[in-house]
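Thread: Modeling a multi-component assembly for a lab meeting

Hi all, long-time lurker, first post. My supervisor asked me to bring a structural picture of a complex we are working on to next week's group meeting, and I have zero experience with this. I have the sequence lines for every component (885 residues in total). Could someone generate the structure of the whole assembly? Inputs are pasted exactly as I received them:
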Amino acid sequence: MSTLSLIGQILFAGLAIGGVYTLVALGIVLIYRATNVVNFAQGDFTMLGAYVLFALSNGEKINFFVAFLLALVVMAVLGLLFELGVYYPLRNRSFLPVVIATIGASIMFQNGALAIFGPMPQKVRPVIYASGNGGITLGGVFFDYQYIVILVVTLALVLLQYLFFEYTVLGKKMQATSQDKDMARMLGIPVSIMIALTYIYSTVIGGLSGMLVAPIFFVTHKMGVMLGLKAFAATICGGFGDVRGAILGGLALGVIESFGAAFISTVYKDAFSLLLLLLFLLIRPQGIFGEKVAEKA
Amino acid sequence: MSILKKNSSSTTNIGFNPSVSYLAFAVGVIIVILLPLIFTSRYTVNLIILASAVGISTLGLTVLLGYTGLVSLGHAVFYGIGAYGIALGTTRWGLNWWIALILSMAFVALIGLILGITTLKVSGHYLAVVTICVQIIFTLIATNWKAVTGGPDGISGIHRPEFIVSLSTSRNFEWFCLAVLLVAVTFVWNLKDRPLGRAMRAVRENELAAQVLGVDTLKIKVVAFILSAVFGGLGGAIYASGSLYISPDAFTFDQSVQFLAMCLTGGTESAIGSMLGAWLLYFLPEWLRQLKNIYLVVYGCIIIFVIVFIPEGLWGFVNLLYRKLAKPRPIPVSKQPLSLDIPETDIVLQVENLGKYFGGLKALDGVDFIVKRGEVHALIGPNGSGKSTLINVVSGVYSPTFGNVKFLGKEVTGMRPCAVAQMGLSRTFQNLRLFNTLTVYENVLVASQRSGGSIEEVHERAIAAIEFVGLREKVHEQCKNLPYGHQKLVELARALAGRPKLLLLDEPAAGLNQTEKQDLVELLKKLNAMGLTMVLIEHDMSLVAQISNQATVLNFGKKISEGTMEHVLQDPVVVEAYIGKKEVALGA
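Re: Modeling a multi-component assembly
Sure thing. I ran the full set together rather than chain by chain. Output:
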C-alpha cells in the first residue's frame, strides 16, 4: 500500500468515526442551547441505541430496517422519560445539581444495560449486508460500507437539521426557546413542549449514532463513555454551544485520533483527544467559534 | 443549597454550641474504641477498614464540592495516587510506610495544586470535564505503564505501618484507620467556620462578591483542591494498606462517581454527613446482596433521588431536628460602635485618562476623575454612560484598555479586585451579590476577616457593622430569606466591616421605598460625618442632592461636567444629556 493510499485510508476512517462524534456532539449542543444543561448521559444514549437495536434485531425475527426504525422510536420515548425524570424536576436549579443528576442517569443506564445484557460484548449487523469484504476499493483505499453510511447519514442529518431550524415554524420556535425562554413563553410558544422535543431529538440522534457505530465497535455497556467524552472534546474545541463547532470539532477529532493511533500509539489513542481537550480548555476555553463572555458586574 | 442554619463548633457560637460538639467528639472516640471490639469477624474488620478509607477520601469532596462549590469527577485520581504511592514505596522502593506516606501526600498535593490552578481558566461544567479527562488519563496510565504500576495485575504485598505498636494485625490497623477518620472528620467539621472555610463558602456562593471583599478567590480554590487531594490521597494510602493489594480498577471513573454519590447522599456541606454517606453507600451493597448485580443502578437512582428530593443530603434531617430543639445563640452586643479608617492622603482616588472598550463599544473613553478625602462624590449620567464600568475598573473587576487609577496615592491599575480591596476599597453592586445561603453574620464576617486581627476583633467589627445598619435582629437569618431592603443593608454592612477608606456605592437606593431611602440617606450622612469618603452612583437626584457635595457627570464614556451638585445640575450640557436640547424639549 502506498503512503498516499495509507493516508487516504486513515483519513477516511477518521472522518467516519468523526461523523459519529459529530452526531453525539450535536445532541449535547442542542440540549445545552435549549436548556443550559450539559448532559453527561449523552454518550450513554449511543450505548442504549445500540443495545435496543441489538435486542430488536437479534435472531432476525423482525426485518432489520423495521427494527432500526423501532429502535429510533424507543429512543424517542427514552428521551422523553429522561427529560421528565432528570431535567424537569431540576429545571430551576443551578447547573451543578443538574449535571450530577445526568451523571446519576448515566450510571443507571450503564449498569441497567449491564444487568440486562450482561458483560459479554455483542455484535450488530451493518446496515448494508454485502457479500465479500463489505466495502469497495477505490484508488488503493478501502471504503467500508458502514463507514460510508455513517458519513452519509451525518451529512444528511446536519443538512436536514439546518433546514429544519432555519425554514420551519417548529424549528424557529425551538430556536426562540433556546435563546430566551421567558420571551418565547410570552409569545405563546409552548416552552416545555419545545424543550421536551429537544430532548427527544437529541436522544434519537444519540441512539442513531450508537446504532451506526455498533457494527464497528462491539456493543458494551461502557461504549458510550469514551464516545460521550470525545463528543464533549469535539464541542469544546469547536466552541461550546455552537453547532458548526460541534460538526467541525467532531470530524477533526476523529481524523486527529485516527492519525495519532496510526503513527504514535494505539494504546494511548484515547489520550490524544483528551489532551487536546485539556489544551483547549486551558488555552482557548471558548473554542474555535466561541466568543468569550465576560460576567457583568 | 441549604435551607438550614449553619452549624458551628468554633468560637462563633452559632448553631451547634461547643458543648454539643465536644459531646459529639466524645461519642466519636467511644465509637472508634468500641467498633473493633464489637464486630470481630475478619470480614467485618476488613470492611470497616476499607469503609474508613472511603470515608476519609470523601471528606476531600466535602471541602471541594460542599464548601467551595467546585465539582470534581476525578476524585479517584487522588485516591489512586495515594494508594500507588504507598504500594510502590513500601514494596518496590523499600521505604518506611510513613516516609512513603509523606512522599505520596506531597505528590498528590502537587497534582491538586495543578488542578487548582486550572480553575483560573475553567469553571462549572468545564471544570467537571477537565477532571474527567484527568481521571481517564490516570486510568490509561495505571493500566498501561506496566513497568511502574504493574499494569492490570496491580501490586500486591503492600505493607502496613507501625504507630507505637505494629499495625500489621487487622484489628490494630482498624483502630488506626478509625482514629484517622475521626481526626479527619473533626478537622473538616471545624474548618467550616474558620476564616478559610468561610471564604470557601463565600467563593461558592458568589465568586465576584468574594473577590471585591478581599478574598483571594484563586488562592482559596487552589487550597481547596490541595486539601481535597490530600484527603483523597490519605484515603487511598489507607485503602492500599488495608486491602494489601491494589489494581487500576479500584481507581476508575466509577469510583470517582461513587465518591460524589457518597458526599451528596450524606450532605455535601457537612463533614459528618459526608462520612455517614460514605459508610452508608459502602455498606449498602453488603446489605442488599441480592442486588449485587444492579447495585450500581441503585446508585444512579440514589443520586437522582437525593438531588431531586433531598438536596441537603441525609444530614439535612439531623440539622432540621437540631434546629427544632436548640435556638442559635444570640451574638454579644458590640463593645464599641463602628470605627472607620481615615485615609492619610488628601486625594483618595485619582483616575487619569481612563478608557475601557468592549470590542467596538467605548464604555469609558478617557475619563479624569478625582475624589478627595471626606467627599461624597456623586457619579451621575444617563443609562449606559459608563458609571458602573468606571466603578468596575476602579475596583479591579475589569482591567482598563488604557489610562491609570491611583488609590491612596498608589498605582492600582489592573490589580486584582482582592488586592485593591485589601488596601481599603469597598464596593456594593447594582444588582445584589450576597452569599445567599450564608447568614447575615457570616456574610459580614467574610468582609471583616480581610483586615485581619484576632478572631475577637474580626467578630467585633462584624457585629458593629451589623448594628450600624440596624440588622441585629436578623444576624442568624440566611440572606436569601430577607426582604429586599434588608438585603441591600447587608451589602452595606458587608462593605463597612472591612475597614474601608473609600466606599463605592452602585445604586444603593434602587428598588427601595421612600422610607427605606430616607433611612439610607441618614446612614450615609452619618458615615460621611464619621469621615468616610464615598463615591455614589444614583439616579434619584433628590437623594443625591441631599448627601453629595461633589459630582462628576458622564455621558457616552466621557466626562461632560463636574463641580458641586448645584453647578452640574444647572450645566446646560448636563441638561442636554438628560432631556435633549432645549428647543427639542419645548417642541420648537
